[in-house]
Amino acid sequence: xxxxxxxxxxxxxxxxxxxxxxxxxxxxxxxxxxxxxxxxxxxxxxxxxxxxxxxxxxxxxxxxxxxxxxxxxxxxxxxxxxxxxxxxxxxxxxxxxxxxxxxxxxxxxxxxxxxxxxxxxxxxxxxxxxxxxxxxxxxxxxxxxxxxxxxxxxxxxxxxxxxxxxxxxxxxxxxxxxxxxxxxxxxxxxxxxxxxxxxxxxxxxxxxxxxxxxxxxxxxxxxxxxxxxxxxxxxxxxxxxxxxxxxxxxxxxxxxxxxxxxxxxxxxxxxxxxxxxxxxxxxxxxxxxxxxxxxxxxxxxxxxxxxxxxxxxxxxxxxxxxxxxxxxxxxxxxxxxxxxxxxxxxxxxxxxxxxxxxxxxxxxxxxxxxxxxxxxx
Length: 377
Fold this sequence. Notes:
By secondary structure, the protein is α/β, with parallel strands linked by helices. It folds into two domains: about 5-190 and about 370-375, Rossmann fold; about 205-360, Rossmann fold (3-Layer(aba) Sandwich). The chain contains 13 helices and 16 strands. Strand 9 (about 165-170), helix 6 and strand 10 (about 185) form a beta-alpha-beta unit. The chain starts with a strand and ends with a helix.
């Protein structure tokens, strides 16, 4: 069976030597790996991810290759813990050099490889492609220079790697016109996973709302959801699960619960089947992050797909990349960045009407696998 190499910042869950990675990225990479397997290829994940700065002791983890299953293996670069700025720089440079030499040694001319776009690894990818002439399929989740510029040098590298890529996996339709409408590309909004039905919405004549995810003041999704309860009546119950700035959120929940007819319940962090059951007991999922920020033009909120795959209806802020997507007609949007607007959008949903969200996600999954097969062959 032919092998596809897939490069990105990846780490195993519960790793003893934590490496730099994002859960949302590894989840999407896992989905794409499964899709690659489904079209008849094995996957070799290559992670140039260095040890997280939380690992202070100078503990070396050697380069290793782990067989994750019959059709998927992972190679992790050698790395070590650091306690000061100088050794941190050394650690990063070593990972990038390792990636360059690994590519030069291991990748053949015209071989198709997938790279999860990151400014950090752009230079070794660009240099290795120039030498080895492999076919680069670049997975682009967002334009990093639109989100936060690390340095003008990295911005130039980002433009360069967009230019040399042979084809793309884009996270939104808007990225096509912004980066590569003349090159072969596939749109993949996120994980098209459909969860097994483990529970059903609570039948207590209440409409149960859910916010699940990171709790922070920057994107403010959980805080916006909580504030919307002030404009909802006793027909609604708002459930919050997640991690982050929980202390600040709980203070505000207690304040609102004293005056709001819509009660708010916070239940901490859940995972696995407990998470699925909890979510499926609700009717409506809330994607209520702030609407300002240039990154919202192209960065597709993965939370929306997660809710739909769980069988929930969805309320989302009216960002262009979602409204113009294939699922735009299946979501209820609000267009003003106010908590009152969120509440008004929630009230528009009739939970007694048919909900086809699971079938919509299944259709997106079938279409992606079909397109991926054509891209890799």
